[in-house]
Amino acid sequence: MIEGVYEPVEHHWFHCEQQVDCKDSWFPFSREDSPRLEEAHKYGMRQFIILLQIIQIALEMVVATEGRRFDVRLKERRRYAVYWEQPPSEVRRCSWFHKGDKDISYTPYPEHTSLILEEAYMISVTLNDWTRKLEFPTGETVVLHSRMLMTQQQTIPSKYWISFPSASEQSRPRTVKRGLEGISIEIPEGEPYQVDHLVFMVHGVGPACDIQLRGVVQCVNDFRDASLSLLSSHFKQSQDGAHMGRVEFIPINWHRVLHGDATGVDEDIQRITLPSISRLRQFSNDTVLDLFFYNSPTYCKTIIDTVASEINRLHSIFLQRHPQFTGAVSLTGHSLGSLILFDLLTNQEIHNTDEKIVSSKQLTKSTSINFESFEETLRNFGLGKFFQMLTKEQMDLESLTLCSETDLKDLGIPLGPRKKIMCLLKRWREKQESRTGTSQPVPGVQEQPTLLSDAPSTSPVDYKYFDIGIGQVSIVYPQLAFQPQAFFALGSPIGMFLTVRGLKRIDPKYSLPTCKSFYNIFHPFDPVAFRIEPMVVTPGVDLPPMLIPHHKGRKRMHLELKDSLKRVSSDLLLSISTLRGAWQTLTTLPVNTLPPVASLGTTAALPPQESEGSRAQNGTVSPTEMKNISFGMLNGGRRFDYVLQEKPLESFNEYLFAIQSHLCYWDSEDTVLLLLREIYEGKGILL
């Protein structure tokens, strides 16, 4: 730095975010986004001057930032989220900063204030005059002492000193800095531009997703940040070779729509809620009731439609913003969100040219429409001539039951035949109601062999005859605009819900119609999570879930110690049993038949029951037995139950950390690494 020579300040762009304590915090844009914003700003200024001279209008510049998840409108100085609803945040082109003694970070001055400070600094440098004070209408006074020392003084009128005990602290000078030099601030490097894979993440019950009561957007942001960190540390060689980019994670929020003004459900529930223990009841209404809403036909339809439409809408927006994207898409659901996705995926349809396979029925009772029986039914009611008209609209008797008289009128069916059809449908519904709530098979629908075992015979409800074969609410399930590569269930109650719906076993041949990979990931202390592999493997096979490796490449120390102690105790018990057997042999044999002393030191082959018992106690299965176990086609013949390793503190009291265990997946690096490993394994990229 040459004395008396002014050098322009380097600007860096910041955006403001409101924290939990309602205080505004300023965060820098990455080293990639800030130069792009600066370049667009300078270009916009040049265009503004030209256009102002010609047609007197301003040019609006929009810059995509942070992995193209946000748009910055330079004219407004606002940052807008693209994939989720979020209030726009302020954006500043920053060059001057201030910080108090008790502040954690520096706060940027407004842009007009920075311009005034920069002009005064330029004059002071040029004239070598450092006795300059700048007073602002807001009461601050900035003093330029030298190039390296600048302070801000808050002027407080003397009449307020008595009423404000902390006025002396308020009047302490604040440190002022020019540019980012000398400021301790972490500026992110930015994200790879290339997106290899897209993952939609669906939350569970309630508006809060983790122990900090944050929403799904904040939790997915942390999940994405963890994936970027693990990609740079575990896949560094592939990233350096430009073979891979990153994985994009986008949140899906259905709770906001369900509890919004459109449904009015919150007002209805509030009218019948008791006034006592109001906070607990409010928490229950916001969270636990979501389970009951999902089992209601009305609100289940709202939830399913919201999830599917949001996924399709955001998928379309993503493709528009990433036109060169050629990767696959996966789905992730937490808690109830995993059940929502499971039900949605079991009801996806595969279209093979002219043939449509109704996959929602395949899970327990696959059905195909027998058009001859449909035509026969219409002829029996004197409606045979309308068969061609209905089949032209791809209608069968099952879809006909969903039609109203207005729909039939729109098809051009006269009044008389319309009344006959409505009478036919009314008789069929009455026949259903006469079976005490169980639904009859639709006339004209030919039953095919089940892919899942039937419900228990002791069940008072015959799930075999539900319209959706696994006891799901009978609604019209929407279709996704893509076929997912994988489905990751986190802390999922899918196994429990399938069992409650009346299912004992999943046929090993069954797989999700449009998704060939499935992973059930859970924490060992999660009270909501259930296993699914026992519903697929041969009954009686007790196989522990797959242990998810620690992201640092080894098993946690306390688990290794526990395994070592278990092996030592097992060996000790084995030695004791061996000595006991030898002693019993010595005491029961006659003296003249005692074996030589040398043979007593050899350990003869253990009884079969001993080795098998110890092996079962250790929970291990031999490689030969593993080859004979079928894990079904839910994950392409591979295992799909994966358990996290509990932390050392959690192992002291599993009840104390039960709730936290259900909410731990969003910031679990082990979970993130498992997703990345499975995603990139399909691309031939291994750790």
TrEMBL record:
Residue spans of biased composition, Polar residues class: 435-456
GO cellular component: COPII-coated ER to Golgi transport vesicle
Signal sequence annotation: none
InterPro entries: DDHD_dom (IPR004177), PA-PLA1 (IPR058055), SAM (IPR001660), SAM/pointed_sf (IPR013761), WWE_C20G8.02 (IPR057826), WWE_SEC23-DDH2 (IPR057825)
Pfam family membership, one: WWE_2
Family the UniProt entry places it in: Belongs to the PA-PLA1 family.
UniProt name for this protein: DDHD domain-containing protein
Lineage, uppermost ranks: Eukaryota, Metazoa, Chordata, Craniata, Vertebrata
